[in-house]
């Protein structure tokens, strides 16, 4: 069974927009996806019917309390968590990560070692380096191979010592597209007694997440990258969330997740997350039948639907990756910064970045924008990546299709890039 793009695209009002008769081609998805109608409906309904704080005795507050509970349940199913008590909402991944540095930092002593990777988005890099500097920790960086754009786990083994206490890991690079072997990495770090914190922001729109199988201690993503509103959603092991010190108001509860969600949260944002999960569940039910057997054993029906959805979407996205990579490689002088082996497309998300000597990446992005094709240029906050590649000053052109994009949209982009290259 394949995705019905007509039905899929009909779910997203933004995909029908045009400017001066030219349709918008959204290939900027790694920075934020468009939202389906269920997200919009849920957020509007929240603001109309449940616009109150929690814990009171009248109808609006009762409904708001139930809405927040349902949002935590939905995210527990998306992550395949043990409990909704392991779900923490926040403004975005970066804010949640800075919050976690305050609490986790209390566990570390001068001389303790931390491992970060050279594939990190700065949101999973700078916060931990600041924490390490405050605590007197030693920071080690796991490099990636600049030819294969993947990690050699033997190098991870070489970095792990008896002083290794923490690791920040990237699940999928927002610039290279590489999907990393997180379960294997976490197993090696867990054996050394280290806490692992996984950035799944770029993976979550393209792959099924199972925190129980990954074996990490924390995992975080941003809902606006997987078809939802601007919300960050953290999963953490309940024993850690319940016992770590936390900066909160005295009046806030001491149970998880209340102790982490201090202050009034964005109820409309959490409602939108429910809508995004409902959309993904619909995709799984309508188009994911052949993938039903791949769901985690003993999971809920909703988790099974969600895993089917993500696998169906990933299968379609491989065709987008193949068309994009093949087309870019045919353009004179273009270098793709990421995996290009078409037999290894399952090892990358469809985010594809490229450079060409003498080509102004910003000018390329502007030329595409002039034709209503949306992409990003520059470092894309992947500072460790561009530093490792020696291209921090110039960056890349980043093209990020997702499951609602079409092959025809990829062809439009390729033709425009070829025109820019020919003009230079």
Give me the side-by-side strand order of the main sheet. 4-10-9-8-7-5-6
CATH architecture heading of the largest domain: 3-Layer(aba) Sandwich
Fraction in beta strands: 5-15%
Poorly predicted sequence stretches spanning 5 or more consecutive residues: none
- Number of spatially distinct domains: 2
The CATH superfamily of the largest domain is known as Type I PLP-dependent aspartate aminotransferase-like (Major domain)
- Global geometry: globular
Question: In the CATH hierarchy, what is the class of the largest domain?
Answer: Alpha Beta
Structural class: alpha/beta
What percentage of residues falls in helices of 4 or more residues?
Answer: 40-55%
Number of strands: 15
- Average pLDDT, rounded to a whole number, is 97
| SSE string | HEEEHHEHEHEHEHEHEEHHHEEHEEHEH
Q: Report the end-to-end length measured between terminal Cα atoms.
A: 43 Å
Which radius of gyration do the C-alpha atoms yield?
A: 21 Å
For the biggest sheet, the summary is:
7 strands, mixed
Using the coordinates shown, work out and report the CATH topology of the largest domain. Aspartate Aminotransferase, domain 2
Number of H- or I-type helical stretches: 14
């Amino acid at each position: 069974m394949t995705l019905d793009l007509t039905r899929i695209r009909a779910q997203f009002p933004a995909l029908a927009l045009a400017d001066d008769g030219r349709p918008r081609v959204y290939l900027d998805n790694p920075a934020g996806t468009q939202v389906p109608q269920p997200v919009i409906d849920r957020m509007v309904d929240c603001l109309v019917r449940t616009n109150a704080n929690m814990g009171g005795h009248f109808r609006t507050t009762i409904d708001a309390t139930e809405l927040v509970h349902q949002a935590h349940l939905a995210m527990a199913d998306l992550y395949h968590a043990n409990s909704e008590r392991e779900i923490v909402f926040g403004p975005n991944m970066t804010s949640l990560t800075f919050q976690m540095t305050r609490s986790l930092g209390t566990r570390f002593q001068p001389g303790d070692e931390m491992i970060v990777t050279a594939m990190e988005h700065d949101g999973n890099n700078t916060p931990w380096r600041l924490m390490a500097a405050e605590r007197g920790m030693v920071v080690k960086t796991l490099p990636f191979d600049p030819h294969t754009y993947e990690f050699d786990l033997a190098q991870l083994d070489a970095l792990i010592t008896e002083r290794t206490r923490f690791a920040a890991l990237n699940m999928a690079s927002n610039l290279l597209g590489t999907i990393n072997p997180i379960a294997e990495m976490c197993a090696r770090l867990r054996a050394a007694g280290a806490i692992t914190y996984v950035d799944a922001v770029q993976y979550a729109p393209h792959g099924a997440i199972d925190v129980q199988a990954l074996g990490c201690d924390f995992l975080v993503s941003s809902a606006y990258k997987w078809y939802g509103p601007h919300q960050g959603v953290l999963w953490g092991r309940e024993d850690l969330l319940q016992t770590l010190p936390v900066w909160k108001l005295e009046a806030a509860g001491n149970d998880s997740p209340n102790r982490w969600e201090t202050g009034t949260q964005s109820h409309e944002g959490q409602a939108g997350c429910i809508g995004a999960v409902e959309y993904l569940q619909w995709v799984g039910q309508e188009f994911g039948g052949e993938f039903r057997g791949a769901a985690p054993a003993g999971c809920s029906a909703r988790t099974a639907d969600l895993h089917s959805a993500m696998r169906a979407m990933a299968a379609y996205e491989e065709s987008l990756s193949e068309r994009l990579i093949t087309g870019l490689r045919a353009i004179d002088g273009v270098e793709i910064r990421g995996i290009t082996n078409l037999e290894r497309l399952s090892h990358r998300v469809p985010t594809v970045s490229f450079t060409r000597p003498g080509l102004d990446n910003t000018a390329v992005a502007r030329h595409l924008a002039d034709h209503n094709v949306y992409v990003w240029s520059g470092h894309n906050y992947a500072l460790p990546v561009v530093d490792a590649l020696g291209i921090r000053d110039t960056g890349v052109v980043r093209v990020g299709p997702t499951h609602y994009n079409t092959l025809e949209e990829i062809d439009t982009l390729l033709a425009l890039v070829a025109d820019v290259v020919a003009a230079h």
